[in-house]
# Entry
Amino acid sequence: MPDVVALCYHATSPAWPNELSVEPDALARQVRMLLDRGYAPVRFADLLAGARGRRVAVTFDDAYRSTYELAWPALRELGVPATVYAPVDFVGASDPMSWPGIDDAAAGPHAAELRCMTWEQLGELHEAGWEIGSHTCSHPRLTECDGARLERELVASREAIAARIGACRTIAYPFGDVDGRGMSAARRAGYELAAALPAHVRRPVPLAWPRLGIYRQDADWRFRLKISRVVRALRATAPGHRLVESEPPS
# Structure
């Protein structure tokens, strides 16, 4: 039985004291733990393909510039490709990204940490073997979108990335917020695999694959618990900890 782990990071900065910001040294140390345990690094789109065995996909939501400036060099030394999920309305903007949950930070002293990557930076990562996926257009809660906006967020973001990068096979749902309607819309939009968060999926399915959210407070001992296969199984089967049971029928 294959053992696959998908990690979800956000920013990678020693300067921003926010739970979403993991220090580069901690990122490298955590990923190295999995490599030392025999996990082969793959991009998220390739997580379920190929040989059986242990695999890990490192993903970054929101496409913060610190992912390009600090996470990429840290992972490059380990020979690990990753996946970046970009909210395309913010790509290349000089102003900080802002939505519920980070809007206070966007107006605070660390606002520069919330700048999104440029298309050129995303393209450089892609050329280096990274995957660029969709994080929608404007980072909404998809379960709160009406039908027209849901389709636009999924379709337009995928088309923008495909036009600029050459392909867009996967999506990460903003806030990990998804239901059967959103999964059906993701399938219609052409996504092959979708990343959910947090890892509260009882039975993982391609259009709502669970990831482990990794945050600033995750010391080494806490990280070891999160990646433990036993702990992951317990979390997935805990009462009330279920995002979706299965993918809706085609």
